[in-house]
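A reminder from the course coordinator: this example appears on the midterm review sheet, so study it carefully.

Given structure:
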C-alpha cells in the first residue's frame, strides 16, 4: 500500500494475446512512460520490437501482489484474464487493446507454427466464441470495480490514425507523454495478418 492516503494509480496494458499490447507498450515507452519489464522474453520474428513483458505479473494467479509497487511510474503488461485479480489497494488506468478476432487467431496460429507448437484442436469459430465470452466477462467484471478505469483501443485504429489514438491514450492517462514520438513508434510493417474488408470489431 502506498504511504500516502490516496492510492497510487498504475498504468496497465492488457488484451488478448496478439492484440497489439506490445505495440502499445512500445508507444508508451517512446512517449516517455518507461515499461516495467524483466527482458526475459527476447524479441523474435513474431515480435521483432520486443514483448515488453514482466514475468512476475503472471503470479497474480498465486496472489503475488508484492511487485505492484515496482509498477509505479511505469507501464506494465497484464493479460486480460488476470485483470480481475488486481487488488483495490491501487487505482488502475487500463489500456485495453482489441483486434479483429480473425487477425488474432491467424497471428496466434503463425506464432505457434514458428515455435513448432501445435495449434489448439478446436476450430477458429469455437476459439473465437471462447475469446468473445472471455472478453465480455472481463468487461463486465472491470465495470464493477470503481478503482479500475479502462480505455479501449483498437489495433486497426492505431494503424489507421495513430495521432488520434496517441492523443486519446495521453489524455486518458493524464500524463505529459510525447504523442509525436508515440506515433513514430508505430510500425505498420508489422501488420502481417490483416483481414481485408473486415470491420475492426472483436
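Designed residues:
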Amino acid at each position: 500500500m502506498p504511504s500516502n492516503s490516496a492510492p497510487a494509480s498504475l498504468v496497465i496494458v492488457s488484451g488478448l494475446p496478439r492484440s497489439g499490447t506490445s505495440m502499445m507498450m512500445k508507444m508508451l515507452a517512446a512517449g516517455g512512460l518507461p515499461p516495467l519489464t524483466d527482458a526475459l522474453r527476447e524479441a523474435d520474428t513474431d515480435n521483432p520490437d520486443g514483448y515488453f513483458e514482466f514475468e512476475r505479473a503472471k503470479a497474480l494467479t498465486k496472489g503475488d501482489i508484492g511487485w505492484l509497487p515496482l509498477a509505479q511510474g511505469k507501464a506494465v503488461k497484464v493479460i486480460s484474464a488476470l485483470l480481475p485479480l488486481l487488488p483495490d489497494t491501487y487505482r488502475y488506468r487500463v489500456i485495453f487493446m482489441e483486434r479483429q478476432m480473425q487477425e488474432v487467431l491467424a497471428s496466434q496460429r503463425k506464432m505457434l507454427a514458428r515455435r513448432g507448437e501445435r495449434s489448439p484442436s478446436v476450430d477458429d469459430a469455437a476459439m473465437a466464441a471462447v475469446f468473445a465470452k472471455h472478453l465480455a466477462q472481463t468487461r463486465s467484471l472491470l465495470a464493477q470495480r470503481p478503482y479500475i478505469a479502462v480505455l479501449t483501443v483498437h489495433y486497426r485504429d492505431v494503424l489507421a490514425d495513430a495521432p488520434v489514438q496517441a492523443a486519446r491514450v495521453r489524455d486518458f492517462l493524464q500524463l505529459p507523454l510525447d504523442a509525436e514520438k508515440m506515433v513514430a513508434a508505430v510500425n505498420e510493417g508489422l501488420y502481417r495478418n490483416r483481414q481485408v474488408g473486415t470491420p475492426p470489431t472483436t
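The two ends are 35 Å apart (CA to CA). The longest strand covers residues 91-98.
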